[in-house]
Amino acid sequence: MPNLLKRWIKEAQNIVFFTGAGISTESGIPDFRSPGGLWSRMKPIMFQDFISSEEIRIESWERKFDSENDISFAKPNEGHKAIAHLVKSRKVSYVITQNIDNLHQDSGVPEEKIIELHGNSSYAVCLECKIKYDLKSIKSEFEAVPISSRKAPNCKKCGGIVKSATISFGQPMPEKEMKLAETVTLSCDLFIVAGSSLKVYPAASFPILARNNGAKLVIINREPTELDQLANLVLNKNIGPTLNYLL
Ligand code: NAD
User: Hey, which of 51, 80, 111, 175 has its CA 20 to 30 A from 145?
Assistant: First the structure.
């Protein structure tokens, strides 16, 4: 079966990759929905709760700084590197990702070829004036006071709420990224999903759009996904070795 995908990659004119948390587990970052994944250990914080409660904002920042090492020390694995290679050789035009870990950028995929649907956790942003904040300065101010008197960070310029630059559940999707993801999905002839349970919408609507528009749809995931029945090919395999083999 991987040989069939190898042939399809060779024949394709325009490939789009769509990645999820599963591509980064081999870099040591837990996904959400694998057994024992983050989802089973802690429920995500909803955007509305983050906005309306200082207590929840504090919890959110505490969680972020506690789990930060998973992400900030992670390095791209052979799956990320294989995709970067395919982008460099112009086989892959775009990488649409649900991931927030910056590992596609770190693997060498140019920024303009990556469409981040759920933002990026490596910096923070003011929800009002959109100014960007470095996490280091937020962390040092946040942790400088005893736990019981911690305050959630506010924007130094306009006083707005500062949030990690990720898209939380309940938060509006980024318009520009959604539009571009739609355009590139409609222009590809091979759409490859790697490491997503395809349970999160609207992100999971892109593989459906690609397939309905006539592209071949391939899903690489070690467990079944919601859209397996729609795919032309499903590979229940580990992503890194599978993508590496394709090269
Ligand atoms: P998910 O956790 O719902 O699904 C991940 C899928 O990947 C699972 O079905 C699992 O079986 C599969 N998988 C895990 N490791 C694999 C491997 N090595 N090879 C093959 N398959 C593997 O992830 P999702 O669909 O991306 O949705 C989760 C949401 O959480 C996303 O919106 C994402 O923003 C966020 N998230 C991101 C990260 C990250 O940036 N690395 C990590 C956790 C969660």
Answer: 51
Write out pLDDT tens, residues 181-231.
999 999 999 999 999 999 999 999 999 999 999 999 999 999 999 999 999
CA of residue 98 to ligand 1 center, whole Å = 8
Same domain, 89 and 15: yes
99 CA closest ligand 1 atom index = 40
Cα separation, 215 vs 210, in Å, equals 5
Are 236 and 132 members of one domain? no
pTM, full prediction: 0.93
Identify the residues whose C-beta falls under 6 Å from ligand 1: 20-22, 24-26, 29, 31-34, 37-38, 98-101, 118, 195-197, 199-200, 221-223, 238-239
The answer to whether 100 touches 169, Cβ cutoff 8 Å, is no
Kindly give, in sequence order, each residue whose CB lies less than 8 Å from that of residue 84, ignoring residues fewer than 6 positions away: 76, 104, 107, 108, 109
Q: What is the pLDDT of residues 86-142, one digit of tens each?
A: 999 999 999 999 999 999 999 999 999 999 999 999 999 999 999 999 999 999 999
Q: Give the domain extent around 187.
A: 1-28+76-118+172-247
Q: How many domains in the chain? A: 2
d(CA 122, CA 124): 7
By annotation, the residues acting in catalysis are 118
The minimum-distance atom of ligand 1 relative to the CA of 237 is 20
